[in-house]
Specification:
seven-stranded mixed sheet
């Protein structure tokens, strides 16, 4: 029988039997509120016809809810000590593959090809907070054939990721998220829902991947420009671009004028179409 992974005494018993202690370094805050995982699974497309990639399975509390609903789950976990735990807690589920790996080093396109033939694919995860942005950037930039990414993230990160481009909260990761997907915050999750409890609150975000991406001729330059601009976000766009990309002030001034962007604007004020117009003009 599947153990109740929302019950702290059950969790402690299993973990102590396996000699496991939580690693702060790996962002190990396990969900213990019984209502959160079913909500993530339902919102995250875990249903018939779907294969789900879970990043950071922990001891499997979310994996169980995904496996109950989807055709197949690949649960990725980097911590070797948790692999045995997962084999125990997920013993009743024959549609789960536990994969011991660092998600940042995995070829996810290959994984999808090998594990999910004939299925639609979605990512569902309670992400390790210390690498939220690198993981999401990898998921976006790998152009995976996935429908959506549903993730539990630190609240501030969720706000930044889902902010409209051109507002105070927006940054380079906002532009990337918006470029590849339509993101929204689904619901908040308080720190008390985790064991051990982190010192920040969280939220669940969902990114529906765009079928058609914005029309940008030189994507590599576009993202280089965006990353550069936002590392100097307090400066004017003009100075931020000249400083970060080492470009000539006259050339940048001309490009900004051509793109219809005020010379005293700040990077965070630029909307997506303005960023695209600027990158096209700088590229000419
Ligand atoms: N899914 C579980 C839950 O909701 O209780 C655990 C979530 S916990 C926030 C994040 C998990 O990601 C931890 O189990 C941690 O060991 C794992 N993790 C950390 N870095 C990882 C990486 N680079 N690749 C795969 N898993 C990772």
């Amino acid at each position: 029988m599947t153990p109740n992974l929302s019950n702290p005494s059950v969790i402690k018993e299993i973990l102590s039997r396996h000699g496991f202690t939580f690693s702060k370094k790996l962002g190990q805050n396990f969900l213990i509120d019984p209502t959160v995982c079913p909500r993530i699974a339902e919102a995250g497309n875990a249903r018939e016809g779907y294969g789900i990639i879970e990043i950071g399975a922990g001891m499997g509390v979310l994996t169980v809810e995904l496996a109950k609903r989807a055709d197949k789950v690949v649960a990725i976990e980097v911590d070797h000590r948790l692999i045995e735990v997962l084999h125990e807690t997920l013993a009743d589920f024959h549609n789960v593959k536990v994969l011991e790996a660092d998600v940042l080093k995995l070829d996810l396109n290959k994984l999808i090809e090998e594990e999910f033939a004939g299925l639609k694919v979605a990512v569902c995860s309670n992400l390790p907070y210390y690498i939220t942005s690198p993981i999401l950037m990898k998921l976006f930039e790998s152009r995976l054939p996935i429908e959506s990414i549903t993730a539990l993230v630190q609240k501030e990160a969720g706000v930044r990721l889902c902010a409209p481009v051109g507002t105070r909260e927006s940054g380079a990761v906002t532009v990337a998220a918006n470029y590849y997907s339509e993101g929204k915050i689904l619901f908040n999750v308080s720190r008390g829902c985790f064991m051990p409890s982190p010192n920040v609150d969280s939220c669940v975000v969902k990114f529906d991947m765009r079928k058609t991406l914005p029309d940008v001729k030189n994507e590599e330059f576009f993202f280089k420009m965006v990353r550069g601009m936002f590392t100097q976000r307090r400066k004017t766009t003009l100075n931020a671009i000249c400083g970060s990309l080492g470009m000539d002030k006259v050339k940048v001034t001309e490009a900004m004028t051509e793109a219809g962007i005020a010379l005293n604007s700040r990077p965070e004020q630029l909307k997506m179409d303005e960023l695209i117009a600027l990158s096209e003009a700088l590229n000419r």
